[in-house]
Amino acid sequence: MSTKKTIAIIGASGNMGSAISKSLSKGNYRLLLCSDGQGKVEAVIADIKNSNPAADVESAECSAQASWEADIIISAVPYAAEKEVAAKIKEVANQKIVISIANPLNETYNGLVTAADTSAAEELQRLLPNSKVIKAFNTTFAADFATPVIDGKQVDAFIAGDDEEALQTVSEVVSVAGFSPIVAGDLSVSRTLENMQLLLIQLGMKYNYNWLAGWKILHN
Amino acid sequence: MYEVFFRKFNEKVALLPEEEEFLKQYLTPKKLRKKQYLLQDDDVCKYSCFVEQGALRAYLVDEKGDEHITAFALEGWTIADLSSFIRQEPATLNIDALEDCELVLISKSAHDELMLSMPKYETYFRILITDAYLALQQRTTNIISLSSEQRYKVFTQMYQSIFQRVPQHMIASFMGLSPETLSRIRGRISKKK
Ligand SMILES: NC(=O)c1ccc[n+]([C@@H]2O[C@H](COP(=O)([O-])OP(=O)(O)OC[C@H]3O[C@@H](n4cnc5c(N)ncnc54)[C@H](OP(=O)(O)O)[C@@H]3O)[C@@H](O)[C@H]2O)c1
Fold this sequence. Notes:
The complex is a heterodimer of chains A (about 220) and B (about 190). With about 220 residues, chain A is an alpha/beta fold. Chain A has helices spanning about 15-25, 40-50, 65-70, 80-90, 120-125, 165-175, 190-205, and strands spanning about 5-10, 30-35, 55-60, 70-75, 95-100, 130-135, 150, 155, 155-160, 180-185.
């Protein structure tokens, strides 16, 4: 039997945080959910337990405590809040996998606030130099987690990072969530991945995909 | 978070402040609650585990499903499935927490890097392994040459701290005795006093 891993989800009350928590509660994971407002996390936990009474999920008093217990940390907060979160977890996230899901969109959704030669993931890595930052889940909408198969096809989920073992571990997490994991390259590939989601959002607004859309690589 | 770790390290090999900072980059701080697993057999042992606070045990499960405790670890001790850690092959041991624990983990990749880049870490690890080997040799010798009663006495002298924190049936398991035999031995010893 493989050892159960503990995953801390920071921003677990949000659209993405709650969707990720719900889908990972089916796996061999112990989940620690935290956010700014505790009450909202309790509602997410109640929802998970309702559909899966055996789920190993708990609320955590703060992101630092949760990250200290965790093997993997998912930062599911807006890009603008990552500096504050990183400062809180820096010490306890040492050597651990930190998943960056953020898309650093501007207010009008027509561009990114990051410079062309960097990405939200690389900025997080700069803030957490001794952690293994991995980009994942940024090209999947929150609504996709409930429906990871769209139009008969399993949605692809791209992963980028610099540590081989960490990429492998995160690929497993992505599979448990129901997506087909594709390792896209090193952490700088996050620039492309974040722009891919910008494009998908723009297309979604233009053609009314209703947030249920995703990427699929067609190949033989 | 790393207080006991660096105190014990410095007892073996003295570190300069900048060397402590360098080493810190490679450490994984981890909390484990009572009854949670650090390692389950069949998984590869990815970490060597130093105990800052709390207590853990390592045990194997035989074909009949019975548990046999092979080691305990308290504050200041290191625990791992060493052969699985070194060879990165599936473990034969399970390691779980007997109390809420605060741990300092060193992953195999961090360990490998430190062995190459930090001679003081290599020295530390050599001393750690040498001490563990000596303790193992002592334990083997005791099993072969002493009566159960003598072994029980040696155990209580050597591992007083474990004795006070761990239930009797686990001590029996560690000594390779049934709980009934252990309680008979204890009865005989207390009568002699
Ligand atoms: N929505 C999507 O489909 C989607 C898809 C891909 C990637 N993403 C990325 O996922 C991230 C979250 O997006 P979302 O749509 O889920 O946003 P959201 O619904 O607004 O949720 C944000 C979460 O972050 C928490 N939070 C905000 N500021 C915080 C702080 N300073 N410290 C700790 N927690 C804080 C919030 O907690 P409170 O509720 O308590 O304030 C909430 O739980 C973003 O980076 C976004 O780019 C989103």
